[in-house]
């Protein structure tokens, strides 16, 4: 019996939804391998994206292989070799390490410029971009994917062998692939405002910790000669529910933090405060299916500790390309054929992300905030006296080192040793000033009473927190066993 196979006229081999760092980097790798690629992008380049604008050394290594570090735009970007950590009445300045296999220190590159550079590089390799177009829907068939999109009021249709979601935290491709919205327990909220006329070194980023809005961080990243990206990130489940309250938290920090005020000087905001959701890694979520896959933030590839996503966007783009090139050549775009990409993510990122998720989860219980702030004080104290320890702390936030670098026996012993030194110094100071010991004892009693009161007032919330911590601890344990 003769079987007749339907001949399909494909518009492209791979259709990518979203032209950010993940989507455009993937388009570059595929086009370079002669895989016919189309990218649907909602805006026209160059266009802005709300972001911290920090590009890690690991991300720069990926961009270097694409030729982007040879551009004038890159050469003008602020090179970062120092980070400042600030808390109330305490601070540490850390010199960043650069491992030998990484060609550059971190850079601050506004997304308006970064995304345009990757886009230009992808186009030069032959990738086609449909700009000012929004995907409406897609449907997967046995031998094709049919995607509908809109350009203004016009509606179009594209037929591809496979679709890739590179459309960020609110990914439409991801929502359809998963069948549900992301879990709020795996989301951050970020705010940003650009400033001009600020003070301070152009090679140092500053990170601020505040008890009032913990768990959350604030930052100032220098941009150009006198500009700065000033922002904050908070865990979605602990931030105020009203957008106006969140903006007010940010505005209060800018107005009242003395370390930030010193750096801002007479600088002025050049735009309104802008916000964006950040969805980080949840290993329960599928990232591949028949003829569909997710990359970058659409796959939740965000470091929960730092909020960095660009590094994982360009890494996942390369890993996805390696898998897709083989799939297209073998004419097999099934979920089984895409398993290699999923396994690569698990191998490279899952353990680190699961541990970072757990650390962030601990901070979500706001009744324990005084404990976490004391812990941060210990870290900053150690950073001031131990450059190697400080470099690891900064490297974890920067993305140069995985978070499990903080779990080595030597690292933990240094934290415990510093805690002992701080306690000893506190007691010696208390003997000289006994009134301070009495005052601090009273403060501790009040904190303990408030904690117990909060636990009694809302036991369900604390049970939920403990359940989440337990779940994430088991997840870390599972990935730890996989690493062995």
Automatic annotation (TrEMBL):
One annotated GO molecular function: oxidoreductase activity, acting on the CH-CH group of donors, NAD or NADP as acceptor
InterPro entries: FAD-bd, FAD/NAD-bd_sf, Geranylgeranyl_Rdtase_fam, Geranylgeranyl_reductase
Residue stretches spanning the membrane: none
FAD-binding domain residues: 11-329
SUPFAM superfamilies: FAD/NAD(P)-binding domain
Classification via PANTHER family: CONDITIONED MEDIUM FACTOR RECEPTOR 1, GERANYLGERANYL DIPHOSPHATE REDUCTASE
Name of the protein in question: FAD-binding domain-containing protein
Organism: Marixanthomonas spongiae
